[in-house]
Amino acid sequence: MPELNMLLFLAASLISVLLIVTIILVVVNIKLSGKLRETRSQGRRLLSQKKSSEVRLGKIGENMAPFIEDWPYDHSKFRFLGNPIDGIQFTDYEIIFVEIKTGKSRLTNTQKQIKKLIADGKVSFATFRIGEHGCTLKKDDMNHCNLCNGD
């Protein structure tokens, strides 16, 4: 019988130790979960700040690009549009749609579509005339070699 009492005592002691260890693990888990949430939150804030900084840098780059030494054209003939394409560069022999990118930024889907329209020759010239008797829009057919001789 004393051996049975000893086994019951050891079993009760072991259960008590396991219970204490379980409580400690639960408390540690709760504290670590809180720290993990806090770390994730800080990570999201830092990522947001980084992205915001990249956007600001991109905007600065877009506005400064035509004025830097490496700009390959006459900067005075560049016209800013802003969105969806940054601008248009005029030369004596062509008109160039320009999208300025910094870092690892890529063309948006809209910009890719515009690029495709240009590549497919889907570019027109239009004159919108405001007169005493209303307004008119004249869209010239650009599918020929000679530009219109009109206005």
Keywords for this structure?
151 residues, alpha+beta, three-stranded antiparallel β-sheet, two-stranded antiparallel ribbon, 2 helices, disordered C terminus
Task: Describe the overall structure.
The protein has 151 residues and is an alpha+beta fold. It has one domain. It contains 2 helices and 5 strands. The protein has helices at 2-64, 109-119; strands at 78-80, 87-90, 95-98, 125-131, 134-140. The chain has a 3-stranded antiparallel sheet, with no helix packed on it. Strands 4-5 form a two-stranded antiparallel sheet. The chain is rod-shaped and about 115 Å long. The termini are far apart. The relative contact order is 0.06. Mean pLDDT is 85; it is low at 144-151.
